[in-house]
Amino acid sequence: MKKLFVIAFLFCVQFGNAQIFGGDKIINNENFDKQRWSWGYYLGFNTYDFKFKYNEEPTPNGNDFIIEKTMGFNVGLVGNLKLNNNLDLRLEPGVTFNTRNFRPPYTQDIEEINATYVHIPLLLKFSADRHNNFKPFIVGGLSTSINLSSNENNPNVDTRLRTNNYHYEVGLGIDLYLYYFKFSPSIRGVFTINNEMVETKFPSIDAMRSQAVFLNFTFQ
Fold first, then answer.
1. β-bridge mates for residue 208, sequence order
2. For 17-45, how does the pLDDT look when each residue is reduced to its tens digit (9 = 90+)?
3. How far is Cα 46 from Cα 74, in angstroms, rounded to an integer?
4. pTM, whole model, 2 decimals?
5. Which CATH number fits the domain that encloses residue 137?
6. Buried b / exposed e along 93-102 (16+ C-beta atoms within 10 A)
7. pLDDT of 11 strictly over 80
8. Which residues form the domain of 188?
9. Number of domains in the chain
10. Among 67, 65, 10, 48, CA closest to 188
11. Mean pLDDT, to the nearest integer, of 123-137?
12. How many CB atoms within 10 Å of residue 112?
């Protein structure tokens, strides 16, 4: 997963360098950013982790909990409102799919946590001025998600997670203006604000919050 992120990031950097320093000065989609509204979609990958708050500190003999992370998939839509030349308001509703393997201490038993989230972020995008066919940006905002795989109301499972959760997000990316469309690779951190755990059989855990990394490829 880390290798994939690194390869994708290096590809974007290399592509951006070619746009900045290359000899080709043809300006693609010159009037794209003059639109008040623009629309698009994104595809991408994710990896989810849990951050635990313990009732007592883990000791060196390993009484903390282990999350074995896997690669997930993102897909969604983009609605963009231009506020000024360097600031946009974006709504990016989508769906994310992920599996985490949850392993308690002192055991090799693994509890598989499958999650399908309807993820709805409202973001502010701060962009630098466009240079040729290249424009870097940073993005941040708040989001909510609905866990369609939630077991919040199921008393027969060991760990019950909430259906509705709230997050803040920060990230960075690059707008690349191609001949027919704008392509925007970005990487983003998503951090849950509320305690996702309703109940667990492990008394040492006081709270569980998701942390995720999204690698998205947006087409507008």
1. 52
2. 555 455 557 889 888 888 999 999 999 99
3. 7
4. 0.83
5. 2.40.160.20
6. ebebbbebeb
7. no
8. 2-219
9. 1
10. 48
11. 94
12. 10
